[in-house]
């Protein structure tokens, strides 16, 4: 079922792909990357509405770890596990490095995000909240969510729906491939409205 | 005009670690408690967030979290024959200010002292005879034993969530822990932090030499933790910005992260910040405190009456508060009489630098303030001192806490101090050096003491505290001995060059050593040689309690915070269960 949904998503990507930057896609990528591109876009721009994340310019170490974790089941996602499992260590590194090298334009801002939602998201991102005892996302994810390689991915310009789904997943304990349970301990103190707000905020920023 | 405020049950001077814990317990027991903090209120959010909190110039160099020494410095001299001058720039030690106190900028190193330390005078005499020590040494027993403090150590460590590996649980030696430690009742609340590469190198070498390496007990937590107060902490991310900095991740145990949320929610407690306490007020008999007088940030003077006064400031400020208030007799080094300011001690810090080849990658920046590996084989009385001519020792460890670019640049001896040669050496050695800390004990002596400065005053017109200190011969001999042991370990690690730097006299305040200033209001069983009794109650004015590292009669081989936490809970027990039910002397003089 999940697999079918993912295939559906790839159709959306194909329809959206003319908007993606043409230059980086011309560079020949590793053979394995072609499969990724069918969902994550020719330039790794992702498919925001289908919760498929951008990969373009993401930390290679981070991408490599996620592929490894999908393969081992440490990060659970049936679709991704099927793709990640057959990859050798070298394939993974190559694919990760390839998407890290790509650039793709930022997506259009989500019209559903309200000003107050964005303001709350920005507060959580830049400052945190003492009432919830949640520290700023930017502490680890870098200024304006621009990422701190090797382990903290960029969040700026990422699909809001993807970010919200992942935050839910950390909170519910479905995703747990972080060091020291850092993400799960933070997200447990955020309510649904805060999850939506912070996801909408990062999504509204220009991707690095 | 002095404004007289409504009387409360308890007034606490200083809302740091001690003040927060005492206030929480007494407010919860139903007493009206006012906490007076001279600095500002500050919290993890928004004050401690990045990127501002990692500003090395602001915090490391300009000491943004420290006591303002343009307004309130300490004066210093090496000997009573000299004239002391104000320390206008903190270097050797770094007293903090503001809500949460010095613990906000600590490294999180959370050691217990050993049973021997609390009965040091007695046990030294028993083991080495009564003429073993230099004549000027004035060490004494604490008046409290390790066994009495153990439950309180335990409670404090569980409050903090300290990450470590026990070495001795109820007398049974535990593999992987410190076999020299005195028995603890149970395992640490959380497992040790991950060992870094330099720690692993040290462990291997120390083991090969027959020593007993163990992971540094850390209050930068290895995993998320909910303490018995219900406060949650996160796991540390090894960013390497602990000491001199606040933690932005709720991962370092400080009053803000372990107790203040509970304290501040209790309506029996009132926090007042920006309040500079001038003195503890006494009645006409001079044997009873009536409260304190303070000046707020607008320059207004207030009298806060209280039935019980607790000074919970940094060690040096506890001593000064008693001297400014005329409580008990100031120490006189000529006659050896008087008690306030007596037995000031410090910590005798030495170091060893092990320089490796270019293919050994250390990554010194991947660390927390307490993620090292160390041995206690040469700490305290864990080795035979017969014939050595000194007591005490040091822990030896690869316990480097950071690789911050302005502060950390190890270079071999003989490197130029600036210019191209220095720069080249920094580039060459930055990522290929292991720095050991040799954290040495400090004996108290007749000539090291604290009193009020006759010349210099603070911004409010009050005399400054004057420190008279130099390293005792006992400790210099100790430093030389343990440093030689450290050099042997560095060689066994395979370093290309090993440089030992035993601490040498004269003591200077211009080089960072440690903020482990102890003594001056020492505890004990004899009012002629102590300021407070075994429950930290003033002998002279029984409704004053003085809680701080100022109570230590001398300093041991380890960081003092854990012991101070234990003493705090020990004193709270006496306060809650005995003193407050029937105020009066808890020990008859």
Q: What is the string of SSEs of chain A from the N terminus onward?
A: HHHHHHHHHHH
Q: Which ranges of chain A are low-confidence, i.e. pLDDT below 50, for 5 or more consecutive residues?
A: 1-26
Shape, per Cα inertia axes of chain A:
globular
| First-to-last CA distance of chain B | 39 Å
Rg result of chain A? 16 Å
Instruction: Evaluate the radius of gyration of chain B.
Output: 23 Å
Determine the strand fraction of chain B and express it as a percent band. Answer: 15-25%
In round numbers, the mean pLDDT of chain A is: 87
Distance from first to last alpha carbon of chain A: 34 Å
Q: How is the main sheet of chain A built?
A: none
**CATH class division of chain B:** Alpha Beta
How many individual helices of chain B?
12
**Count of individual helical segments of chain A:** 11
- The helix-and-strand class of chain B reads alpha/beta
Low-confidence spans of chain B:
none
Please tag this protein with its features.
heterodimer, A: 11 helices, globular, B: FAD/NAD(P)-binding domain, 8-stranded mixed β-sheet
Structure description:
The complex is a heterodimer of chains A (about 210) and B (about 600). With about 210 residues, chain A is an all-alpha fold. Chain A contains 11 helices and no strands. Helices cover about 50% and strands about 0% of the residues of chain A. With about 600 residues, chain B is an alpha/beta fold. Chain B has 12 helices and 24 strands. Chain B has helices at about 15-30, 55-60, 115-120, 120-130, 145-160, 195-210, 255-260, 260-265, 315-325, 420-430, 475-490, 560-580; strands spanning about 1-5, 10-15, 35, 75, 85, 170, 170-175, 215, 225, 230-235, 270-275, 275-280, 290-295, 300-310, 340-345, 350-355, 375, 395-400, 435-440, 450-455, 465-470, 495-500, 520, 545. Chain B starts with a strand and ends in a 10-residue tail after the last helix. The interface of A and B includes residues 128, 139 and 181 of A.
């Amino acid at each position: 079922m999940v697999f079918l949904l993912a295939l559906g998503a790839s159709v959306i990507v194909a329809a959206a792909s003319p908007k993606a930057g043409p230059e980086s896609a011309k560079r020949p990528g590793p053979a394995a990357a072609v499969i990724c591109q069918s969902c994550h876009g020719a330039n790794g721009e992702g498919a925001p509405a289908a919760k498929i994340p951008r990969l373009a310019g993401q930390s290679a170490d981070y991408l490599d770890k996620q592929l490894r974790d999908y393969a081992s089941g440490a990060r659970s996602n049936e679709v991704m596990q099927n793709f990640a499992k057959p990859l050798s260590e070298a394939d993974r590194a190559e694919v990760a490095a390839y998407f890290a090298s790509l650039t793709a334009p930022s997506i259009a801002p989500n019209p559903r995000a309200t000003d107050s939602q964005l303001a709350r998201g920005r507060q959580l991102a830049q400052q945190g909240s003492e009432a919830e005892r949640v520290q700023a996302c930017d502490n680890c994810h870098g200024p304006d969510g621009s990422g701190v390689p090797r382990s903290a991915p960029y969040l700026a310009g990422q699909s809001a729906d993807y970010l919200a789904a992942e935050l839910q997943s950390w909170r519910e304990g479905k995703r747990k491939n972080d060091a020291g349970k850092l993400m799960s301990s933070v997200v447990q103190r955020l309510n649904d409205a805060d999850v939506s707000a912070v996801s909408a905020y990062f999504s509204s920023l220009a991707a690095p | 005009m002095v404004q007289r405020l409504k009387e409360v049950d308890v007034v606490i001077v200083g809302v740091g670690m001690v003040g927060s814990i005492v206030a929480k317990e007494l407010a919860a027991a139903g007493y009206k408690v006012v906490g007076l903090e001279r600095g500002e209120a500050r919290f993890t959010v928004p004050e401690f967030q990045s990127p501002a909190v990692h500003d090395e110039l602001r915090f490391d160099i300009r000491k943004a979290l420290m006591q303002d020494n343009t307004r309130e410095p300490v004066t210093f001299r090496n000997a009573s024959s000299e004239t002391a001058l104000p320390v206008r720039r903190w270097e050797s030690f770094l007293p903090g200010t503001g809500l949460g106190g010095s613990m906000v900028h600590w490294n999180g190193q959370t050691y217990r002292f050993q049973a021997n330390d609390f009965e040091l005078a007695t046990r030294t005499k028993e083991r080495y005879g009564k003429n073993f020590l230099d004549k000027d040494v004035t060490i004494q027993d604490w008046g409290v034993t390790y066994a009495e403090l153990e439950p309180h150590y335990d409670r404090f460590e569980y409050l903090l969530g300290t990450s470590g590996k026990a070495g001795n649980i109820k007398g049974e030696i535990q593999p992987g822990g410190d076999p020299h430690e005195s028995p603890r009742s149970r395992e640490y609340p959380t497992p040790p932090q991950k060992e870094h590469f330099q720690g692993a190198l040290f462990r291997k070498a120390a083991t090969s030499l027959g020593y007993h390496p163990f992971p540094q007990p850390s209050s930068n937590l290895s995993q998320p933790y909910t303490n018995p107060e219900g406060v949650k902490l996160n796991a540390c991310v090894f960013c390497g910005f602990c000491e001199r900095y606040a933690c932005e991740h709720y991962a370092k145990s400080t009053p803000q992260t372990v107790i203040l949320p509970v304290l501040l929610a209790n309506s029996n407690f009132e926090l007042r910040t920006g309040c500079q306490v001038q003195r503890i007020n006494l009645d006409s008999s001079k044997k009873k405190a009536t409260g304190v007088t303070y000046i707020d940030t607008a320059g207004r003077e207030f009298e806060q009456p209280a039935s019980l006064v607790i000074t919970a400031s940094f060690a040096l400020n506890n001593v000064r508060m008693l001297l400014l208030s005329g409580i008990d007799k100031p120490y006189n080094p000529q006659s050896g009489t008087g008690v306030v300011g007596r037995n000031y001690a410090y910590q005798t810090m030495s170091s060893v630098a092990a320089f490796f080849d270019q293919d050994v990658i250390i990554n010194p920046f991947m660390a927390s303030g307490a993620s090292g590996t160390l041995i206690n084989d040469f700490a305290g009385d864990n080795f035979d001192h017969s014939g050595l001519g000194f007591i005490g020792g040091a822990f030896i460890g690869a316990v480097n806490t950071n690789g911050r670019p302005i502060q950390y640049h190890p270079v071999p001896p003989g490197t130029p101090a600036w210019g191209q040669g220095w720069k080249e050496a920094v580039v060459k050695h930055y990522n290929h050096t292991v720095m050991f800390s040799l954290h040495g004990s400090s004996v108290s002596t007749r000539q090291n003491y604290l009193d009020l400065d006759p010349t210099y005053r603070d911004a409010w017109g009050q005399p400054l505290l004057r420190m008279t200190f130099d390293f005792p011969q006992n400790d210099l001999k100790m430093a030389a001995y343990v440093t030689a042991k450290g050099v042997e370990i560095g060689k066994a690690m395979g370093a290309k060059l090993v440089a030992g730097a035993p601490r040498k006299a004269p003591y200077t305040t211009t080089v960072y050593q440690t903020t482990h200033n102890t003594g001056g209001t020492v505890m004990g069983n004899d009012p002629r040689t102590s300021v407070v009794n075994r429950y930290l109650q003033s002998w002279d004015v029984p409704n004053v309690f003085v809680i701080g590292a100022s109570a230590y009669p001398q300093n041991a081989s380890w960081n003092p915070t854990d012991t101070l936490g234990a003493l705090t809970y020990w004193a709270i027990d006496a306060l809650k269960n005995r003193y407050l039910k029937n105020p009066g002397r808890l020990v008859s003089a």
